[in-house]
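S.,

Sequence below, as promised.
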Amino acid sequence: MLRGTVLAGLLLVALGIGFVGTAAATDTAPNCGDVGYSQNSSGWNKVTNISQLQCIEVNGPQQNYVLTNDIDASGTQNWNDGGSGAEGFEPIGDRMVAFTGSFDGQGHEISNLYIDREDASFVGVFGAVKNGRIENVGVENVSITGKDSVGGLVGDLDGGTVSESYATGVIDISTDQNALSVGGLVGQNYGGTVTGSHATTSVTLSGSESTYVGGLVGRNINDGIVTNSFATGSVTGSTRVGGLVGRNTDATINTSYATGTVTGSTAGGFVGEQVNGATVD
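The prediction came back faster than expected:
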């Protein structure tokens, strides 16, 4: 009897450890009114599952969040199906209501996230970040479709920081509409900083005039900085296609590199186009 009790206890402990290690997504998007958060000793909201990640914008995009474990987001491929196909995860923040807080992944990863919003702008795990900070997080095996300002982690970075983070997977924009500012990690970096980060994401845009396409950042502009970062994924677009950055305008790139295959009518292995006093060191 004692042996059976001990074995049962060990099984419960093992299952508990597995659950804490990686939280799996359900096949239905959450009702954010039913999603709550607890706080750590610093007052940061703890994100332990995909529902809490999804509901950050509703809970408060100005607040600070910390990821406490890995999340398997494969269930998002079934989310938000209105009858014409699942749209998946809804990006956190947009131009009107951007994420302005801090998000610390603590070295954890979000895997198998699915977003299919082919007509949308500001698409990524975080659609728009304004003067906020995203750090220490990996996005593994992402599958994303969007239109403008699309990135594996952040669609539009406006004055904020992405540091020590990475993305892998596929961004495939096959719509006939001409997309712009698409990157493996960040779609557009407008006066922000991307540092110590990388992407192995495959980025493909099919529109005949799709532009600003980069393995790491689609467009780096307005004193944006990319530093100590790299990209190794293949990049395909029409114009201003770069292995690291599609277009570098009044912005800086230093101590970074790219090794992926680049295809486009105007393309560069490192930067697709550099204008208006942009610098590369």
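Residues 115 and 166 are 17 Å apart (CA to CA).

Coffee later?
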